[in-house]
Amino acid sequence: MNSIATYLTVLFTRYKILTLVLAIALIWILFGYLTGGEFLSPRNFSNLLRQMAITGMLASGMVFIIIAGEIDLSVGSLLGLIGGVVAILDAHYHLPVVLTIGLAIGMGGLIGLASGYWVAYLRVPSFIVSLAGMMAYRGVLLGITGGSTIAPVSDNVVLVGQGYLPFVVGDLLGAVLFVVLAVVSLRSRARHRELELPVAPMWQDVAKLAVTALVIIGFVTVLDAYRGVPIPVLVLLVVMGLFTVMANRTVFGRRIYAVGGNLEATRLSGVNVQRVKMLVFGLLGIMCAFAGITTTARLAAGSPSAGTSGELDAIASCFLGGTSMRGGSGTVFGALIGALIMASLDNGMSMLDVDNFWQMIVKGAILLLAVWLDIATGSKR
Amino acid sequence: MAEYLLEMRGIVKEFSGVKAVDGIDLKVRAGEVVALCGENGAGKSTLVKVLSAVHPYGTWSGTILWQGEELKASSIRETERAGIVIIHQELMLVPQLSVAENIFLGHEPTLGAGLIDFETMYARAAQLMAEVGLPEINVALPVSYFGGGQQQLIEIAKALNKNAKLLILDEPSSSLTKTEIDGLLRLIDGLRAKGTACVYISHKLDEVAAIADTVTVIRDGTFVGTAPMAELSVDAIIRMMVGREIKNLYPREAHPVGEVIFEARHVTCYDIDNPARKRVDDVSFTLRHGEILGIAGLIGAGRTELVSTLFGAYPGRSECELFLDGKPIRIESPLRAVANGISMVPEDRKQHGIIPIMAVGHNITLSTLSRFAPRVLIDDDAELQAIHGEINRLSIKTSSPALPMTSLSGGNQQKAVIAKMLLPHPRVLILDEPTRGVDIGAKYEIYKMMFELARNGMSIIMVSSELPEILGISDRVLVIGEGQLRGDFLNDSLTQEQIMAAAITKTPLAA
């Protein structure tokens, strides 16, 4: 009994993410029970994922900012500004969708890099730089929209936020993903043998792949039972995959963690820490563009109030997902689970007709408790 | 009255199944100075944390008798009230507050209603500072105004204010100059005469020999022995600490020294806060192929500023002309330095060397990561292979390179930082206090590694405050005093006295 407890403790400390997945499961079971199963229906699952997509996009950029030891309060306003620009380019200038999206992404990236330049090279604290951005971007948005909603946007733009992948394409992407993961796993075994590094037992890799297959099949099946994989969810999943690889397997990713873990030591190791910081802000700017495009597409209009307090949801998601306030640790997957927890709470409580004010109170309390739990269990060492 | 002021018996403290301390006894009489010796990781700090109730009663087993009665403290406040006060290796002073405010932090005398009674506080603080041998200092000045040695004494004054019966000094001298250390030892001697006992934890065995009445040695968490200092020699203590005899701490090997490969001319650094003040004043020197160049001098003489300028890491304004193979090079950042084949292991490991929560392996490859990413992705396996190679080469003791850096002892952290800066295969390696806070075993290994590198043609610049180390390792010695080059000596029949003389004499001595 005792040994099982120890084993579980080790498991949960090593894979912090397990705790989060468990938390999600509990929340879903609770809401599933309270709504008589309605919460767990494929339709609601699809809605839930669509709801979390925008916060998720912001959070997957934000998490690197926090890992690098900075903060960005401007993302909600930047989302709104880019969303507004997309609406104007589409509704007033009728640019082709691809061009509009390209311009939006470029704009997000450049604005992000500019914030990063202020933080990294001009040494203004990121809290201040982004607070200034938060005010100014919203101001620009109000100026260019004249304070009124820009509508209607074209169907092609709407598709980006409200469309679904055809079933066949969704299934195919799932299959491709599995094949890629299987090939990577096999090649890594071969490479380990070649370099005479320890190779994990075959059954472990097979078991991992089997679980992966089950998750992919389950995910696609449930979404297909409604209308297929929503496009914003696909974007989010691709971002998650790319960012996870970036965090773990690229020089830039590793350096973000190093900069957040100890800036001076990283600089003295011959790393251009200022560039790393600036690029991380650029990355977040691009994610703001994605979120802005998706918001305008979802609303089928550019709203001057779009994205208001989006930064708070994104930051809360990161911390719910186990990102360290002091920098140096955190994962994209964790931040997205955090966003999913937030979306589940919103969605579940709305289904239960809980008043909006209660929803806010509950979310605040859960954020506080979750971070406290993390601190209380983490400081035992 | 009990025979011992403090008696710790059979202390055992486990961390998730691993015994950090396993059955240690420590006895201290009133007015006695006991030196606690052991390599890094031997369990000294764990033992001190048990004693001071950082690990409260109940989280460890064994008995602590304080003045003959069992002590069951659950917090530092309780042990401090009993009269056990610890002065940590890293000083716990608030730099912005005044000396007096620091001394009374948490025990401020008040006029009632929460108002601080500044008059009483200043008067008492001045009295305490006189007791620790600094009667002339202004206690209203902020602590940041004073140097390391004086801050150490302020800490002691703070301890005295708490009516300490037992002072525990954890590596008090690691950042002090020779004069400051002498002052500290005199102070401890004076306190002993007044009946205050002291546990003195230090790697510097000459200090132990000078001050201790009794020596207790622990090794790998276990009790090795206690003996009166009078019956021991420094060699005997080292034998007890390492469990083996290190015949010669400095494994000096003959190695060929070639042509000049690196030259620094007119290095000048200006103080960050006071740009008119020169921290390094027009220093020029050369470095040869395969040469180990020691840089000696008092603390604050400008040695660290000098070498960080060479590495492009000096935070303030600096000027210099650098030449590699006779060609001028410009180094405005550590990035450029590494690209030019210059590596530096900084003095302050914690602040500037390690990334604490990052894995040991990832720390090691930090400066060479791009090499393992031929295209976009890092080749994890090639990286891991390189990491294992470095871990074996420098015998870094870790159960897995995936563990965080903080899981290593100080000596192994230092070896990992050295490994990180060796991976770029530098031609010039700068080591700033490479063995500070490192235990004797790891020291020996670092010295051996330095000789091996030099034999293979690397040129090494070593800044050190320990003169035996400078004399035991260097081929040539530069002496820096008040920012100026005061001497450039070949290290044959050079003595500590000659170096000290050069460091404190104004006129430069001829080589």
Task: Summarize the topology.
The complex is a heterodimer of chains A (381) and B (511).
Chain A: H1 2-14, H2 16-34, H3 42-67, H4 75-91, H5 97-120, H6 126-145, H7 155-162, H8 167-194, H9 202-224, H10 231-249, H11 251-261, H12 263-268, H13 273-299, H14 310-320, H15 332-351, H16 356-378
Chain B: E1 6-15, E2 18-28, E3 33-37, H1 44-51, E4 61-66, E5 69-70, H2 76-82, E6 84-87, H3 99-103, H4 118-131, H5 148-161, E7 166-170, H6 178-193, E8 197-201, H7 205-211, E9 214-219, E10 222-228, H8 234-242, E11 260-270, E12 278-288, E13 292-297, H9 303-310, E14 318-324, E15 327-329, H10 334-339, E16 342-345, H11 349-353, H12 360-364, H13 380-393, H14 410-422, E17 428-432, H15 440-455, E18 459-463, H16 467-473, E19 476-481, E20 484-490, H17 496-504
Parallel strand pairs in B: 3-8, 3-9, 6-7, 7-8, 13-18, 13-19, 16-17, 17-18
Antiparallel strand pairs in B: 1-2, 1-4, 4-5, 9-10, 11-12, 11-14, 14-15, 19-20
Give me the oligomer status.
heterodimer
Find the count of extended strands of chain A (DSSP E, 2+ residues): 0
Helix content, binned percent of chain B: 25-40%
Neighbour order of strands in the largest sheet of chain B: 6-7-8-3-9-10
Please tell me the CATH architecture of the largest domain in chain B by its name. 3-Layer(aba) Sandwich
Instruction: Work out the count of structural domains of chain B.
Output: 3
* Computed structural class of chain A: mainly alpha
Shape of chain A: globular
Largest interface: A-B, 28 and 36 residues
